[in-house]
Amino acid sequence: MTLIGPENPDQARLLRRLRDDGARSRVELADALGLNRARFIAEVDRLTSQGLVETAGPAASRGGRRSSLLRVAGQVRFGAVAVSAGRLDVALTDGELAVLARLGEPVDVRGGPEALVGRAVELLGKLRAEVGLSRLTGVGVALPAPVAVPEGAAVSSPALPGWHQFPVRDAIAAELGCPVQVDNDANVMALGELHAGTGRAFDDFLYVKLGSAIGCGLVLGGALYRGATSGAGDIGHLRLTDDGPLCDCGNTGCLEAYCGDGALVREALAAAHGSRSAALADRVAEAGTLTAADVARAATAGDPTAQTLVRDGARRLGQVLVGLVSFFNPAIVIIGGAAPGIGPVLLAEIRGVVYRRSTPLATGSMPIVLSDLDERAALVGAARLISDHVFAAR
Amino acid sequence: MTLIGPENPDQARLLRRLRDDGARSRVELADALGLNRARFIAEVDRLTSQGLVETAGPAASRGGRRSSLLRVAGQVRFGAVAVSAGRLDVALTDGELAVLARLGEPVDVRGGPEALVGRAVELLGKLRAEVGLSRLTGVGVALPAPVAVPEGAAVSSPALPGWHQFPVRDAIAAELGCPVQVDNDANVMALGELHAGTGRAFDDFLYVKLGSAIGCGLVLGGALYRGATSGAGDIGHLRLTDDGPLCDCGNTGCLEAYCGDGALVREALAAAHGSRSAALADRVAEAGTLTAADVARAATAGDPTAQTLVRDGARRLGQVLVGLVSFFNPAIVIIGGAAPGIGPVLLAEIRGVVYRRSTPLATGSMPIVLSDLDERAALVGAARLISDHVFAAR
User: Which InterPro entries does the entry link to (chains A, B) (predicted)?
Assistant: First the structure.
């Protein structure tokens, strides 16, 4: 059966509401959508005959005639693919984007797009076999690079050499025979927050993704805002200074060169070798090198040098956030991708800078919080990405 | 007759389309709105009976049956009020927001809100008498301060002492007995650009207002974006440094303290007194002091010191724009409020900074241009502001 999808905006609204709120009674749904009885029945019939919606039993009585519950049909199943610098994760979700099964493994994205796309398709195949699923309704993909969304391809990026203009969307769609949507990881994680995280309660928020690459996702009026050329939120290579540290992108003084994981590790190695931190030196002696998680652990354990490194990076990020927050006036800032345990040190510094320097109207009551979704943000977000596409009127 | 306004989203879309595109044939409108014949006729009848829409004669034949033209009714008349630090301008517009008559005069906003609101109402009364108009459909107001839009009141601002929480919207509405909407000048000027300026061709743009106060208006997806607490675009008091020049707001290092008109004049006076510019010193000897327009004239005439001052301010603004452009990825940046003649020097410097430092995806083909609307931006924008309110479904 070829998926046609919703035929008009009312059908699309109905599907998205069932996805976001779960099973609902017919009466409640018709009211919420502002549709009269005849129209509502007609729209539900069309969605049911397409296998997108199904009845889920009787609803609790509201006094009058008994109503039945509707939900997204059980055969609606989304695939989610989340690529990061060193990992590939895939998941299957139901129509409400709950994760049914997941698999992940370390990968080296520098091996190029063909190998990685092939492996993602294989892992999705394994998951489908596991749950006995013959076909996917659609697949969402998060890439750790800027993405030209209309083309479904990554744009040149130091993190993904060889991926420039590789047609990720079309390659996966050709393998799986279903709709595929691709976006950058910060945008996808913001969608994950919108669906299942703290962002669920807010229409306008800013999601900041830390890690080896730094990016932002902007949710405006309850939807992801991508900008004129899919570049909104690409703050990692903002140049803070003309003469700062060298960045992977070849420029100097980028935000990422100050507070990406690579910068943190570089500074921490220098501190270890320069005998400025016994904790970091011990770890180097033990493991041969350091990771961002090592620095986070040392900072959490109270090592003053590691704490200073984390604070220095957080301060730079805070200075950039001051401008973004004044400009965009979000209801909340959500920070994800931070190494485990590092949150309190990081947040204290970022909040200090933002609250001290921002305009009062923008920050008077604006919370800055850590994401509580962690790596699930990208998987749920990838499912949300493709569901927004499939659940849109043609 | 009490104005009810559109009763549903289709009526609102119809009115806005007539406002934005001018008179259109019934056939064309029904097609554009995707309404069937019966529905379209019913909606037009309701709007006509409310005095919002009227027939404007026969449409050019498209082959089949002759169609008639519709337009916003001639009795729809908006008032526009634009307050700046030293001037009050008011205008009347028709339903397509063309200015029918205008009046303006120098004022001192530090005299407080009651006097100024009273004077604005008087001037609107004069204009109404001039064109023989008994009642206004609504009034839009631009204030040179942050505005809490839901309350229709200015928020504390150094430019408007005594205006904090004064109910501008309700005070004018009580005098004139019509709907009133209030917003800050940068937002209103962005709406003017969207309706009648370069911004008309773009869905996502950033409008930067220079002058004694500096602000931004953000247009996203063809509509003004105000943020969670009406603070989006308030960049004037972004702190660029902790130890910069003192700002009117009492803090140090604000963007405005670097490149507002006040900063430009302060630096120019220092240059004149320090014998670093003969042109500026001559002007001080002649007029006793300097204005931003004097500095602009000296820069345009080739005075190197004046040019350096303009460039220094523009560079600071450019550095802020780098972040905003990377973050928001607009299709175009429009700069308004610059002193006459100063444009080329200003633009060259801003473009230099933005194109050199921004991320390629955001700025690859993004133009940075000067507004060609000048002071009309605020009046057309104020009419647009109130028309968006009146032409919205209740």
Answer: ATPase_NBD (IPR043129), ROK (IPR000600), WH-like_DNA-bd_sf (IPR036388), WH_DNA-bd_sf (IPR036390)
